[in-house]
Each structure stands twice: as C-alpha cells, then as structure tokens.
Design a protein that fits this description.
This protein has 456 residues and is mainly α. It is built from 23 helices and 2 strands. The protein has one domain. The longest helix is centred in the first third of the chain and has 22 residues.
C-alpha cells in the first residue's frame, strides 16, 4: 500500500494546475458512499434457533430510509460522467484529422474498456465459484444469494455505458439547445411514472434508466461550461430539487427510501421521479460546495488520497461485496457464526459496526492489491483495423444486456448441470470481442504521466 501511495503522490504532483480536482473528489466520494452504504445496510445474523438469516437494516429500522438520501449518490457519478465524457469527446474531436473514420468507435471502445476490463475478473471468478459450489452439492438457493449479493454492482455499469455511448448526440444537443436539452427529460420521466403507476403499462418504467441519468449527465456538460459558476444558481438548484423531493415523498406517494426497501416500490431499480429530484438536489449541493472543496484539495495529502482512490475506484466498487460475502462465509462456516449473534438495528449491532467495517476493509485490501494495477490497462484494436460504428454499438449493447442480466437474474442457474447461466457470462465477453479489444498491456510510466496530465 505504501508503494501505491508513493505512485499516487507522483501522479498527484503531475496534475496540471487547471485540472478541476473537485471532479475527481466527487467521483471517489460517490463510490465510497455506495460501498459503505452497502456494507452498512446489509447484514447476516444467527437467530435464536441457530439458523442463518438474511438481515436488512432498512427492514428493521424505517428511520434509516432517510439515510439513503445521502448514500444513494449514483446521480453524482453521472454528473461527473457528463463532465468527463464532455471533456474527453471534445478533445477527441479536436485531435481528429479531417475525414478521419472510426473516431467515435475508437473513443467509445476506450471509454468502455476502462470500465469493462476490471469487470471481467470478478464476473469470471464468481462464475467459477458457482460451478464449483454446484458440483460439491451446496444448496442452489444459497449459491444464488451469494452470486446475487456479490454481483449487484454491475447493474450500474450497464446504464453508465449506455449513457456514455450517447455522448456525441447528447453533447450536440447541449451545444444547440442548452438547458432545454436537460429540461426535456423532466416530462419524459413524469410521463413514464404516470404510465407506470396510473396507466399500469408494464416495463415502461425501465426507460427511466435513460431519462433520469441522461438528464443528470446533461448537467455535467453545463458544469463543464461554467453555467454553475454563479453559486446562487447552484444553491437554487439544490433548494428546488430538495423541495420537489420532499413534496413527492413526505407528502406524496413515493417512498422515502432511495434504494429498494420493504413497504413500497423501488425508487432506484428502475429510477423514478423521486430519484430524479434527489439527483438535482445533489447536483446543486455539490456544486454549491465546489469553491470550498477545491481549496481543501490544494492540500497535498488530501489530493494524493483522491488520486489514489481514483486509481482503484472500479476495483473497490466491483469487489467490495465480494469482500463482504467472503467475511460472512468465514464467520459462518469457519468460525461457527462468531460475531453474527446481534440482530441488525439493535444497539449491540450498531456498536459493532465500526469493527465489522474495519474487517470488510481488510478483506478488500488484497483484492485491491491484485486487481487495481490493471484498471488503466487497455489494448489496441487487433491488427489496427477500425471496427464499424454499427458493430461497436451492437457490442456495447451486448455488454449492457449481459451486465444487466447479471444483476437482474444472476449468473446462477436453478436447474442447469453446470450451475450457471452461460449466456449471461457470454454476452459481455462477446460484446467486448465485437468492439475489437486486443491483448491487455500495462501502461508505461510515460503513459501514466500523460494520462495524469489530462482532464478526467
């Protein structure tokens, strides 16, 4: 870890002064909030009969539903994504030669591969574990629970990749229509919820994955262009979003919880107007705090920690629930349920949370050491060929469908001999092949320095 800190310190010192460090900080904090939120909300315990039960803090303590307004920060990640994708796509267009072909394909493949390459190891590991656990005779329902718990994070990647793939169109819409390119998503999200809850149209609510997150992504373009430099606008955005959120949850029919919780429908899977309002409020809040935050990030230690976290961000996100499952498995099978005798939500349970969070972090550290070094690895297109745009888009869609199915139906099969759904595993791999991903290489020090000097 000391070596990782030293490398992060070197990269931090290479960052140009014009870099907006608040972008990097928000990316790191949003992922950390998700990680600690998952570790805090989920929990297993042993009941009085000695049976292992699946606990859920949101089930036993309804007041914790309010905490999700702080822990459900995926909108912040899409805000940062809009900022970063806008910068990246703009730089790509400026560097492109007149009449150059394959610009979009190469840009999209680069963005996709930075996200999907760290995903394959955790996906293939759990596929192998599911096969082994099935062959040794473990209960298939327990296998399903374990794989589902470990791989839930990949749903976000499916949506983020789709939104990223739309960047050239959404960026052009912003340049032509400005705020209208954001506002158009408000009636779309409202209409989608009306069709869902009033008209009872099935599956239409899944389109809100696009309407809600594309809208927040547009605000990233606005941020990049300095539209929120007047902090009064940012604060007004926060107040407006928070006011709508309170109105439709406290005084409306939307649940207070911004994640799946008992006693109501989910505001996040798929998103609803409530999550849209939360996202707007969060955007306003973090951009109101930007000037103060950027001053804090002038501190070398804080900025180095931010760089370090961003260098392992996908590893932390993808492996944190694997670490959780590993800890729970050892506590249950190897230690006879040691430490699992307190029910979630009780005073004893809360008192032990710092210890358990520390254990989860220790379990995650080896995974970071093994896999984080490959996060910025990417491979050239095989043979230097340019993959057609249609093929690239189709490849992205296959990846997104595969990752979505991983979270929705899990890779574990209740009936197959192997114990897994091979098509779920195959789709993202085939999609990556269509994009033309070549052999992975480890960037040189010069490459890392060049990457550190660029905007995110």
């Amino acid at each position: 870890m000391l070596t990782m800190w030293s490398k992060a310190r070197e990269l931090a010192e290479m960052a140009p002064p014009e870099r907006n460090r608040w972008v990097d900080f928000l990316r790191a904090v949003s992922i950390l909030a998700v990680v600690f939120g998952h570790w805090l909300m989920a929990g297993l315990y042993v009941d009085e009969a000695g049976a292992l039960q699946r606990g859920d803090l949101l089930t036993v303590a309804s007041w914790t539903h309010w905490l999700t307004w702080g822990f459900q920060v995926m909108p912040v990640f899409f805000l940062v994504g809009g900022y970063s994708n806008g910068v990246s796509w703009g730089a790509t267009l400026r560097k492109a030669e007149p009449g150059q072909t394959g610009v979009y394909r190469d840009w999209l493949a680069s963005r996709v591969q930075r996200l999907i390459t760290p995903t394959f190891p955790v996906l293939l590991l759990w596929a192998g574990l599911a096969v082994i656990m099935t062959q040794v005779g473990l209960d298939r329902e327990q296998i399903r629970m374990a794989t589902e718990a470990a791989l839930i994070p990949v749903w976000f990647l499916a949506v983020y990749l789709l939104v990223t793939a739309c960047t050239p169109l959404t960026r052009k819409a912003w340049e032509r229509f400005g705020w209208l390119s954001f506002a158009i998503y408000i009636p779309l999200a409202v209409l989608t919820d009306w069709l869902t809850f009033s008209a009872g149209v099935p599956y239409i609510n899944f389109t809100n994955f696009l309407w809600v997150f594309l809208a927040i992504h547009q605000l990233g373009f606005a941020w990049r262009e300095g539209r929120f430099d007047k902090r009064l606008l940012a604060f007004a955005t926060f107040v407006f979003g928070l006011g709508i959120l309170i109105a439709i949850t406290v005084y409306g029919f939307y649940p207070v919880s911004m994640v799946s919780a008992p006693g109501g429908f989910s505001n996040s899977l798929p998103p609803t107007l409530a999550l849209f309002a939360l996202g707007v409020a969060q955007v306003g809040l973090v951009l109101t705090l930007e000037p103060m935050g950027r001053k804090v990030l002038d501190n070398t230690g804080i900025w180095t920690a931010t760089v370090l976290m961003n260098g392992m961000i996908m590893t932390v996100y993808l492996w944190h629930l694997t670490a959780f499952v590993l800890v729970m498995t050892i506590a249950w099978l190897a230690l006879g349920g040691a430490g699992l005798d307190s029910v979630p939500g009780t005073a004893e349970w809360w008192a032990t949370r710092p210890l358990w969070l520390g254990i989860y972090i220790l379990a995650l550290l080896p995974m970071i050491v093994i896999f984080a070094r490959h996060e910025r690895s990417f491979g050239p297109i095989r043979g230097g060929r340019t993959v057609p745009k249609v093929r690239a888009v189709f490849g992205v869609l296959m990846i997104c469908i595969g990752l979505g199915a991983t979270a929705a139906v899990t890779i574990a099969s209740p009936s197959s001999i192997s114990g897994i759904r091979w098509w779920v595993i195959a789709l993202p791999l085939a999609g990556a092949a269509l994009l033309g991903f070549g052999p992975v290489y480890r960037p040189s020090a010069e490459t890392k320095a060049a990457e550190a000097s660029q905007q995110p």
